[in-house]
Design a protein that fits this description.
Largest sheet: 6 strands, antiparallel
Helix content: 10-25%
Strand content: 25-35%
Order of helices and strands: EEEEEEHH
Shape: rod-shaped
Length: 136
């Protein structure tokens, strides 16, 4: 999200300030975070324009140049639009409608058990493996 603000208190020499926010995800350790930046536009003494990225009141390197993970210092970081990390966290905490997979209760029946009721076939592992048996 980009937003141009007309702040009264610009850093010395700043002609405009643009607010941008990004979501980041480290592809090495999976850590995710979000950060907002004030991007100050300046004109140097030589007439060339440059920008300063300010996060939490401190001048920081551009997050687009070579972002580093705050958790593991890895440099394989995905940059996304703002709100992606928060929405992923919210989705993870939402109640699940489908129960998670888990162990299935299986009834053990000895080989000499009576046959199942008419109309129903009770499968045994040997029935499932029958097509794979070798003839001979």
């Amino acid at each position: 999200m980009t937003e141009i603000t007309g702040r009264a208190a610009l850093r010395a020499g700043a002609t405009a300030v643009v607010n941008e926010s990004y979501s980041f995800a480290c592809m090495r350790c999976g850590h995710g975070w979000e950060q907002s930046y004030e991007i100050e536009h300046h004109t140097g003494a030589d007439g060339h324009e440059f920008v300063l990225y300010v996060a939490d009141g401190r001048i920081v390197p551009s997050p687009l140049s070579r972002p580093a993970c705050r958790h593991c210092d890895g440099h394989v970081v995905r940059i996304m639009r703002p709100g992606r990390v928060a929405s992923a966290r919210n989705a993870a905490h939402r109640e699940r409608r489908v129960p998670p997979a888990g162990p299935v209760d299986a009834v053990w029946e000895p080989d000499d058990a009576p046959p199942p009721a008419a109309g129903r076939h009770h499968w045994h592992l040997s029935d499932l493996l029958h097509p794979f048996r070798r003839a001979g």
